[in-house]
Amino acid sequence: MDSLPGHLLNKVLFKTDLRALAMLCCANTSLQSHIQNPSFVSEYYSQIKSSLLHISTYGSPYLVYHHPHGGSRSHKTKNSLMECHIFGCCSGLLLLFIDDRLCVTNPIRKKFRFLTRRDKRKQLGLAVNQLDRTTNNFKVVYIFEMANTDETKYGFEINAGDSWTCSKTTLTCHTSNLDDRMKNPVYLDGALHWLRNDGSIISFNPKTEKARLIKIDFPQGLTSRTLFAPGVNSLTLVSANEEVIYFYALKNILSDSKWVLEKQIQNGVIDKNIVSWYVEAYNGKCLVLRTWYDGVVHVYDLIDNKWVVMGSVPTWCDANRDFFLFTPSSSSVVGLDEILACGDSLRLIMGLVDGSLSEKGGEATC
User: Lower Cβ count inside 10 Å, N or C end of the chain?
Assistant: First the structure.
């Protein structure tokens, strides 16, 4: 392969899955240099589509993975042997609670790190920052409320792979609970963001350890089916009814913040006869809706401007699901290694994601 012209070599490598690329990097130094070139990385990852992971909100031994090729056989299920939670995903990493411990893993590179915390508190966020063109680092942040009387005071604990440290940073603001309806914190532009019931947003930068409260109200007319999610360049609220889906982007995040209606589309898959349906996930490129009566997962591709069917949720799944749009990555991550033995549960999950990458199917992607 070393003798191939660059454009022909790229054609071959673009058809190679991430696990095989990682193995090539380990086996051949010249290919490693080519694969890690920023121009190749940018073009390769522009072709990778997100997959969909989902699991019971309350934890489950069953994790379902929809690879980005549609069809009736588009999902795989693994019994993880022990109860598992997914608390977040970012830049190809998963934050799990499995084998009675928190764990950060890159399923493609088979790298992982178990963290010392053993409880299942959900106020956790996963942040991944790029150190150079081939290497990232990660930090897990836990937000907690400190004793206070008339106001709410927040503290933060941070783990970069070795131990938990309590940040000297605290944030005191008017009282309002974190909004459980909006599920997980959103990581964008180096900061984690937690939405509160009154519409305000707590922002925390794990690198600088600076925290701030973004004082803002919800836009008028939000429906009960609203999702807090990352957009392409902004925090986003996706609000849907049976006819229209609205996308609100948060503008002027540093000062005079406001929600701006950036886009709206017709809801092409739901009608008034369907009572139970959910807005499940959004990443700026695609939107995922799920109908409860038949378990069908519908995806709207914002680039192609069309609805497709990604697959279906197994009938035995409960109604309360946590969905994650997950894009694999072969990047090296500081703090992940195999210094501790990988249990059967984690090995099954890594194999689930890795084994689905090479499957072929329909055209539904996101």
Answer: N
**What is the span of the domain harbouring residue 215?**
48-356
Query: Are 58 and 1 part of one and the same domain?
Result: no
Q: Are residues 18 and 72 in the same domain?
A: no
Number of domains in the chain: 2
- How far does Cα 200 stand from its chain's mean position? 22
219: DSSP letter = P
Q: What SS3 class is residue 297?
A: strand
Of 285, 284, 287, 283, the residue nearest 298 (C-alpha): 287
Q: pLDDT per position in the chain (366 positions), as tens?
A: 556 777 778 777 777 766 677 777 777 788 778 777 766 765 665 566 788 899 998 889 888 888 764 443 456 776 777 889 999 999 999 999 988 889 999 988 889 999 987 666 678 999 999 888 778 999 999 999 887 667 899 999 999 988 999 999 999 998 888 876 666 899 999 999 999 999 999 999 999 999 999 999 999 989 999 999 999 899 999 999 999 999 999 998 888 899 999 999 999 888 777 888 999 999 999 999 999 888 899 999 998 899 988 888 887 888 888 999 998 887 889 988 866 667 788 888 888 876 643 333 333 345
Residues 206 and 227 in one domain: yes
